[in-house]
Amino acid sequence: GLSQYSSDPRTEWDLSAHSTREQVLEAVRNLRYKGGNTFTGLALTHVLEQNLKPDAGARLEAEKLVILLTDGKSQDDANLAAQTLKNLGIEIFAIGVKNADEAELRQVASEPLELTVYNVLDFPLLGSLVGKLTRVLCTRIKERSHKETADTPVNTGPQLSPTDLKISAVTSKSMHLAWSPPLRPPKKYRVVYYPSKGGTPREVVLEGAVSSVQLSNLTSHTEYLLSVIPVYGAAVGDGLRGVTSTLPLSSPRSLRVSELTHNSLRLSWKAAQGATHYLVLCSAAPDGAED
Q1: What is the pLDDT of residue 68?
Q2: Range of 16's domain?
Q3: Which residues pair with 206 in a beta bridge?
């Protein structure tokens, strides 16, 4: 499977798209370069949520490897996204070209770094890595396959996917999510949420027996995109998606002015629910305006 990224990741083809070497090579020949920025963290999250799920051809019992190819320093938090993949048993190989940040490559890649981090000065030199990288990848898959016995049958569809996402108790700062678990409970859930107009994704990881979560410390009057993703070993099932907006902050009401003197006045108002402080601003009216 292959995804290409800049500001926004794009799946070029899924793991299940091609079944022969010739088909893959033809797809590579037809690939168009996607220019733009370098949001590596967003790309890794895209691979996890979109490319490593059963509908995209990811087999639950198969080892999961991600090869990151980049020619620049990430403009978002690549390390956090990479750590999420590694915590799920997904191995990351990092290959840098030209202006890639080697320190970042070493943060993102899995251990041992002498096998998973590569850096070359220019794109034509990538060809020199193919033989070694192929041998390392095949060896790693064999080693990991021998260590881990597959205890999960290959199932896709409703058995692996939660349903019926319910969003309730929405306030200016919080909301409650609940869902119906799949027929086969996952090991964990990843709940990812972020403002629809842009912002750093935040994440909560829950045990598979839990089917609800309270999201707090949100921004008021903001539309949020929500994802609930079931995790089975090193694979992810189809996630639930939702969108909702937090409430605006309440405002003080019924402003009244009293006790006027030549240099003072008293203000009073109906309190705003949840307010901890008030900021009161006053200025003299411009000349000629009604006092």
Answers
A1: 96
A2: 2-147
A3: 189
